[in-house]
Specification:
By secondary structure, the protein is α+β, with helices and mostly antiparallel strands. 54% of the residues lie in helices and 11% in strands. It is a single-pass membrane protein.
Length: 460
């Protein structure tokens, strides 16, 4: 009996020591408190409520509700991961500007399996810096901007030639057709034709099926053939597209499969984000006659000037239109084509008194920052004049293209394409928009594809 008592006491003491030691380790590790919040239901967390809000006209309500209870940074559990959600501009900036030793991309498993480990959205370290740097430098090159301007003008004019007076067009479909052709030309120099139509069809299935794997495999097969043909006919001339840029690099890590996969991933803006940016600009302008009038007058003035000089418009002409750029900026703020990014912490991180534990996901939610009344007066009102005389490079409250090492390399290209489209559209047509609404999930788009009744201008 005494021996049994000794065993029980010893077991209790050992258990107490182990529990105390564990508690001390946890307390030592988490001496900085986790953000407030709740992890929701077992397994599903708060995912269902997040998706329910995302389908509404105010998807930020999920964030606003918790921000009111817990603060701008809070913990949750969405898409299968314990997550720290940031609606704080400074915290989000810190996450975006950190390198791969601190944060790495982290997206739902279904998306990462589809994109593949070699996707530029997921790779890290020197390989990511290499690919991102090569593409970014090419997108900024004067020869590309000159070529893109010519091609974009050509595709826009060819598309608009077929538009008849008093005809209903769906602007979202028209912009997708134009922007996709432009981006595919930039990436692999593919001109309109059967192969372009095949790619376009597969890409529409890819997006409509919430990223359909069979459609992607068909596209990759076509691009792999183009990559192999290009390798067999390689030359030392200046690169004419992104494919040339990557093939000309000496790195052995840039394999044919990696290049092919990334060509497909980089086509997404041509089918999705850039056309939506153009469409939303037309939507907001249709609802704001004063902004439409000022933008039209600015572009008409440029058109008349270039006609008098007998000169074609170049990319610097489009980018020098101040009010047009303000309209695009305000569309990016209100439209939030990219609502945020997801990262995984590689170690315990402390920022502004918050702890982000190692292994947790961080969701930097841009939309809440862009629609925060503390940053923008009347945030739900389309007001391009708010950007007059503002230096966007000095604020962390505006991040439509992300930031840091993963800042979207095509941001200037997206602005240029949108500027060219708006210029030609407002200087050639008047229109009446039918009622339509914005859908925010799973991607931003117009519910009815933005129907417009158009009439060609008869201005002298």
């Amino acid at each position: 009996m005494d021996n049994l008592w000794i065993v029980c006491v010893t077991a209790i003491l050992l258990s107490t020591i182990i529990l105390y030691s564990t508690w001390r380790r946890i307390r030592s590790r988490y001496r900085i408190p986790l953000p407030l919040g709740t992890l929701g239901w077992p397994f599903i967390g708060e995912t269902l409520e997040f998706i329910s809000c995302a389908y509404s006209d105010r998807p930020e309500r999920f964030m606003d509700k918790r921000r009111g209870k817990y603060g701008k940074v809070f913990k949750s559990h969405i898409f299968g991961s314990r997550t720290i959600v940031s609606t704080d501009a400074e915290v989000s900036k810190f996450v975006l500007q950190s390198d791969a030793k601190v944060f790495v991309p982290s997206y739902p498993k279904s998306l990462t399996e589809l994109m593949g480990k070699s996707s530029i959205l997921l790779i890290n370290g020197s390989l990511h810096r290499r690919i991102h740097g090569l593409i970014g430098a090419f997108f900024k090159s004067p020869q590309l901007k000159a070529q893109i301007t010519q091609d974009m003008q050509k595709y826009v004019e060819e598309s608009m030639e077929g538009w008849k007076d008093d005809r209903l067009i769906y602007i979202q479909d028209e912009t997708k057709n134009i922007a996709f052709q432009i981006l595919v030309k930039v990436l692999i120099s593919l001109n309109p034709g059967d192969e372009m139509e095949f790619l376009k069809k597969q890409f529409q299935e890819f997006i409509a099926g919430l990223m359909s794997l069979p459609a992607k495999k068909k596209m990759v097969k076509l691009v792999q053939k183009i990559v192999q043909d290009r390798r067999n006919s390689s030359s030392s001339t200046l690169p004419k597209d992104v494919l040339d840029v990557l093939l000309n690099d000496a790195s052995e890590k840039l394999t044919g499969n990696l290049i092919s996969d990334n060509m497909i991933d980089m086509m997404i803006p041509g089918e999705d984000s850039v056309p939506v940016l153009m469409t939303l600009a037309i939507k907001f302008l249709s609802d704001c006659p004063a902004a439409l009038q000022q933008l039209t007058e600015e572009n008409m003035k440029l058109k008349r000037l270039k006609a008098q000089l007998g000169e074609p418009l170049c990319w610097s002409d489009y980018m020098s239109l101040p009010f047009t750029q303000n309209v695009i900026t305000e569309t990016l703020r209100m439209g939030n084509v990219i609502v945020g990014v997801m990262r995984k912490a590689m170690k315990d991180i402390e920022i502004k008194g918050y702890l982000i534990p190692k292994g947790w996901c961080v969701f930097t939610y841009f939309r809440s920052v862009h629609l925060d009344e503390h940053h923008y007066d009347w945030p739900y009102k389309f007001n391009p004049w708010r950007w007059q005389d503002k230096d966007m490079g000095t604020t962390c409250n505006f991040t439509p293209f992300g930031g840091g090492q993963r800042l979207c390399p095509g941001l200037d290209l997206a602005r240029l394409e949108t500027s060219i489209f708006l210029h030609h559209f407002v200087t050639q047509f008047r229109w009446v928009a039918e009622d339509d609404s914005i859908v925010n999930f799973p991607t931003v788009r117009m519910k009815r594809r933005m129907p417009l009744w158009i009439k060609r201008r008869r201005d002298p």
